[in-house]
Amino acid sequence: MLKLLQFPDKVLSYWATNQFLKKEGEIVFRNGSSSSPLKVKFSNAYCLEMHQNINQGVETILVISAESLLINGQTYDNNWTK
After folding, report:
1. Pairing of strands 58-71, 38-54
2. Which among 2, 59, 9 is positioned nearest to 27, based on CA atoms?
3. How far apart are CA 4 and CA 79, in angstroms?
4. Assigned domain for 69 exists
5. How many CB atoms lie within 10 A of CB 33?
6. pLDDT value at 25 more than 90
7. Which range marks the domain in which residue 59 is found?
8. Which pLDDT does position 48 carry in this prediction?
9. Angle (nearest 5°) at CA 36 between 9 and 49
10. Which Pfam families does its entry note (predicted)?
11. Which residue from 15, 37, 80, 81 puts its CA 20 to 30 A from 31's CA?
12. How many domains does the chain have?
């Protein structure tokens, strides 16, 4: 699950509304210190859900299911059948 504090762009919106579309991408989490950011790369990923909340600000929640993840150099594979 990924929470964004903004509206998604057209690419994310299209991905979330097309159940057969797989994407590859990278999410970089940065903090205020000078430490290295956390990098998450994903491949063959589906966007399963997208929710938007508009209250005092905008919040977009994406639920992503990926065949494989690379988190700071460590690989996690879901071993999906081909």
Report:
1. antiparallel
2. 2
3. 28
4. yes
5. 6
6. yes
7. 2-75
8. 95
9. 30
10. TssD
11. 15
12. 1
